């Protein structure tokens, strides 16, 4: 007997989803005969979030099971105490049911917006609109006073290696041991006095002593370039997150736009008079 196409698809779906459902319903522990399943574990792991993140991996599963044991025992005791019969409990349960429904709905619908095509388009549109930003690669020697800075600059002028002098003299705890190497940076990353001097230098040039709030600097420019744009793969997770959040916001706004919202906790506003003057429009920046 030949199966219809629909029956074949249904059978295939059952065969592929059955193992996953069986795994989710697998019992991993029992407390007073109450089963704790892998599905319970997944939900509790999501709920515990940051609390689990602080634990080593080998302790996380035990922590989740212990939490679920306490949860099952506490819920059993609360049921025996008829906590669930109180009107306040019913109201709280209804509230959290609606909250979970909304969260699940928004997550499901937002995933549809974060397609690879949408992510790539947003990346391309954003990078096209970005103006090239200059950055420099520099080294520096940081000392306490001008006399020390002049002495360091003089040694370099006489031919000593800048990195060697920086490793010997620089008081910068971050770059001193690295020969004064600051890596690549944009102008806004440094204090104004330092940045102005560094970005005016030519490749290989060493500055005169420069004073900042941190002390006195002697700066060497290693290189200049236009700051490279990030590659798509490295920023795709952030793009997906943005697309999903924007989609969720748009969904909520659309639902609110279609709804009739009535505020009964304050008096209705009087209808505006036809001849009432219109408010002045805000000035454009």
What is this entry, summarized?
With 285 residues, this protein is an alpha+beta fold. The protein is 55% helix and 14% strand. The strands form 2 sheets. It has a 4-stranded antiparallel beta sheet with strand order 4-3-6-5, with helices on both faces.
Can you walk through the features of this model?
Residues 275-285 have a biased composition (Basic and acidic residues). This is Parvulin-like PPIase. Residues 133-223 form the PpiC domain. Residues 263-285 are annotated as: Disordered. It comes from Bosea lathyri. The protein has helices at 5-24, 38-48, 50-53, 57-80, 87-113, 116-129, 146-157, 162-169, 192-200, 232-258, and strands at residues 27-31, 34-37, 134-143, 181-186, 210-212, 215-226. A hairpin with a 2-residue loop joins strand 5 (210-212) and strand 6. It has 285 residues and is an alpha+beta fold. Mean pLDDT is 87; it is low at 1-14 and 281-285. Helices cover 55% and strands 14% of the residues. The longest helix is centred in the middle third of the chain and has 27 residues, at 87-113. The strands form two sheets. A four-stranded antiparallel beta sheet has the order 4-3-6-5, sandwiched between helices. A two-stranded antiparallel ribbon has the order 1-2. Helix 6 (116-129) packs across helix 10 (232-258). The chain contains ten helices and six strands; from the N terminus they run αββαααααβααβαββα. Among the domains are: 22-81, no CATH class; 139-221, Chitinase A, domain 3 (Roll), CATH 3.10.50.
